[in-house]
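@channel anyone free to eyeball this complex?
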Amino acid sequence: MVDLDELWKNARSELAAVADPEALDVWRLSYLGRHGALTQVLRGLGDLPQEERRSVGARANELRSELEKALEERQAALERDRVATMEAGSIDVTLPGRPHLVGRLHPITRTLRDVLGALNSMGFQTVEGPEVEWEHYNFDALRIPEHHPARDMQDTFWLDSRKDGKRSMLLRTQTSPMQIRFMETHQPPIRLASPGHVYRYEATDATHEWMITQVELLAIDEGLSMRHMKGALTELCQALFGRDRRVRFRCDYFPFVEPGAEVAIECGLCRGAGCRSCGNEGYLEVGGAGMVHREIIENAKYDADRYTGFAAGFGVERIAMLRHDIDDIRYFYGNDLRFLRQF
Ligand code: DAH
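replying in thread with the prediction:
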């Protein structure tokens, strides 16, 4: 049996020699660790005869608290020494610490979350699509064939994907291709919200970027009419801009909807009267919309006499600019913390 007094003596003298936290840890392990000297004694108690077990056990437990106490005291002493050394040296320990930089969500991420939040609460499910897209989904299936003037409005980044020089892949110019993709794999009723980046080969200026974020909406069901479209889109706009804002729908043309509409909100400054901020329009455009073209419903192999639907597309940068009075879209991706920290 180990001599406990001897163990205590050794432990104390070794502890006194400990000069840094690493050595302290070595000491702790050698006495109190899983394979430490005292731990071994405590483990071996069961092998002792009854009479001895009691007294040795009591002493060993006592010793454990003594060792633990000594350890704590040594630790505190080491810490005091450390601070004293630093204070004596050139380090000013009274200087405040350097703050950690706290990140935050990008203003577009925040706006996008608000848009999707409003849509999800109306039952639209969020599904993302690919940014590298086939010409078929981005254009043809949306009734924008080659040489259609609507293609000219979306100057396109084509991918040289074929050896014969013909190109069929591109960076999607809109999120509308997700309408087609989703209809291929789902049956009505459909409530889709599809966010993501879109790309256009544009010269950059205060209102144009070569990459922007869009959210596409698609609803297909029995009996959907323009009333449902106006209701859902008015709800979305008012959730984003305030309940008192009027929402205006005017005729517009998009090949994949009929009729098509432009969606605009009342100018927050002049309330529809017309001012400099809205270019005397009284209203600010936020997106496009319309009733899904019958041909697209038929192409999806849905019963076009039974199902109708509406679709819409919104620009997230545009919404963020209008909500926060930002006058230049280039701020979003300019990586200037003075701008980004304001959100
Ligand atoms: N994809 C169109 C664009 O980028 C926006 C759009 C208009 C989407 C009308 C729609 C819609 O779903 O119905 O200009």
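from a first look: The longest strand covers residues 211-222.
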